[in-house]
Amino acid sequence: DTGVSQDPRHKITKRGQNVTFRCDPISEHNRLYWYRQTLGQGPEFLTYFQNEAQLEKSRLLSDRFSAERPKGSFSTLEIQRTEQGDSAMYLCASSLPRTLNREKLFFGSGTQLSVL
Amino acid sequence: AQTVTQSQPEMSVQEAETVTLSCTYDTSESDYYLFWYKQPPSRQMILVIRQEAYKQQNATENRFSVNFQKAAKSFSLKISDSQLGDAAMYFCAYRRSGGSNYKLTFGKGTLLTVNP
After folding, report:
1. Relative to the CA of B45, which of A6, A45, A107, A116 has its CA 20 to 30 Å away?
2. Confidence of residue A98 (pLDDT cuts 50, 70, 90)
3. Residue B100 pLDDT greater than 90, yes or no
4. What is the largest CA-CA distance in chain B?
5. Which SS3 state, helix, strand or coil, does residue B86 take?
6. Which of residues 66-95 of A touch B (CB under 8 A)?
7. Is the pLDDT reported for residue B92 higher than 90?
8. Closest by Cα among A8, A95, A4 to B102
9. Closest listed residue to residue A107, CA positions, set A29, A51, A11
């Protein structure tokens, strides 16, 4: 078990381009979260999946953002028509079902996005 | 909406000494969870300690302990016998009880420096 894996670690893109990030949670973790962390701030919740179902989306997730978890395993986060304000670190986390391990989230090392 | 406030952007401590990081929060809920996470330069968020609001006893994990004051909505972290490896960004986080979403609300963080 290698923990939560995120790819790429860094992404530099030009304004207006589309970008996609991938998160591989710990196997058997059915819950998956995306957070965004800007400089000098704590992580902010973006969206949550239980298996393949996206159960909650933050108002921070504009129409340009879309997240998927097609088979209940890995997840992708796509940002279309990137803006400079999208520059941030995007963190993924996963957890076991509530009955097995209360409250503990395992985080990946994040994808640092820079929009020029 | 719940908010988490960390009033100390930066703190420093001498190796082997004790340091306390402050956190206050605002919520109308009576049952919830509080956490301290550590984010080293590797960027991966690591759970340090967790406190259930219904428990009066303060949580401890080896050199880490908390002072949970529910009425004052205060949740400070004490690190004893500080080590160089404790240097990191520390985030206080809140989660409401119940439901299936382990969505966390984070503070802005406190950067801890450990001086040899």
Report:
1. A116
2. low
3. no
4. 44
5. helix
6. 89, 91, 93, 95
7. yes
8. A95
9. A29
SS3 labels along chain A: CCCCEEECCEEEECCCCCEEEEEECCCCCCEEEEEEECCCCCCEEEEEEECCEEEEECCCCCCCEEEECCCCCCEEEEECCCCHHHCEEEEEEEECCCCCCCCCCEECCCEEEEEC
Determine the Cα–Cα distance for residues A92 and A74; give it in Å rounded to an integer: 10
A76 Cα distance to chain centroid: 7
Q: What are the chain A neighbours of B106 within 8 Å (beta carbons)?
A: 42-44
Instruction: Verify whether the Cβ–Cβ distance A91 to B45 is below 8 Å.
Output: yes
Q: Where are the beta strands (DSSP E) in chain B?
A: 3-5, 10-14, 19-21, 24-26, 32-39, 46-52, 60-61, 64-69, 74-79, 88-96, 105-106, 110-115
Query: Each residue of B35-81: pLDDT tens digit?
Result: 999 999 888 899 999 999 998 899 999 999 999 999 999 999 999 99
Give the chain B residue whose CA is nearest to the CA of A111.
B43
pLDDT on residue B68: 96
A9 vs A111: CA distance, rounded Å = 5
Contact B23, B74 (CB under 8 A): yes
Six-digit token pair at B54? 């219904």
Q: Tell which of B43, B55, B106 to mutate to test the A interface (max A CBs under 10 Å).
A: B43
Structure tokens given for A63:
């129409």
Q: Rounded CA gap, B44 and A92, in Å?
A: 10
Q: Three-state DSSP class for B38?
A: strand
